[in-house]
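User: If only I could read backbone structure tokens as easily as an amino acid sequence. Underneath my words sits a plain record pairing an amino acid chain with its backbone structure tokens. This is the protein in question:
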Amino acid sequence: MAKKKIAIVGAGAVGCYAGAHMVQAGEDVTYIDPWPENVEAIRRDGLRITHIRDVEPFTVMPRALHLTEAQQLAKEAPIDIAFICMKSYDTAWATTMIKQYLAPGGYVVSLQNCMNEETIAGVVGWGKTLGSIASSITVELHAPGQVRRAAGKSGSRHTVFRVGEVHGRITDRAKEVCKLVGYADSAMVTENLWGERWSKLVTNVMGNGLSACTGMITRDMVKNDAIRHFSNRLGSEAIRVGQALGYTFDEVSHMDPETLARAGEGDHEAERKIDEHRLGEANRPGGGEHRPSMGQDMVKGRRTEIQFLNGFVVREGEKVGIAAPTNAILTDIVTRVERGELKPDPKHITDLRLN
């Protein structure tokens, strides 16, 4: 039986990390990426994967195409599985680009932050759309062709990849995707894609924008009382919006959603429990020694996904009558930093005096 032909559209941190393990396992993977230096580095030196601990570095030599070379795919066997690993604002055009090269039974998987399945389905149809969450993966494309993970493998301690169909049923193709991402770390097929998506969204809402506008890494944000409590408010609002939209989720970064929501609303006992958990995580060896993806984007001068994270919470909240003022404030601050009107600084949050 011929191997499935896999395309990874977007050779960023998550796409490179997951795809490199697929290549290592012998899968047929083609990368397509818009960053010329990245493609050239992969072609010349391979794709290098390193971890902060416990895992030996390795290098693979995958096929990598410049975006302008994607038309070569028209002369080849069609793509069976396309992973979209672009930033959310690039989802629509990236899906449109790869759609024309899909096999009749081919399908597209969103392996991204934010909730992009609807955008993908608007291009290829709901029947060809799946999602995969990468939970607490802490990876960074720190140089062209080089990905570093600020941890070891999570394994049984934490399920990193959660793969699901939009309709919630367990299917053979969901199991197939689970096997592919499972080469990289622990993976499961979920019947609750939307709940898993919203849970990850809450996690991102609590840290990404804060890192982008303060310039801080996760550990330092958590250890700052004012910023941590502001972060709790962000998560609380996102949880209440998600609940109003009908999503169910069991945890948010190993925290009980209801306790986190109440902490952000000023419940002192809930706040004590959440603080204890978050500070405990930050004080572990290696805990929080990474910069969230939006913080990485700000350092690199890239466009951020703030409108697809905190801004998205605000807009979805308006639909169901749930205000998200803290998320609105952060969205405005990050947007101003991104435009160059402000420089990254913790004072953007600590001087708000909301805590």
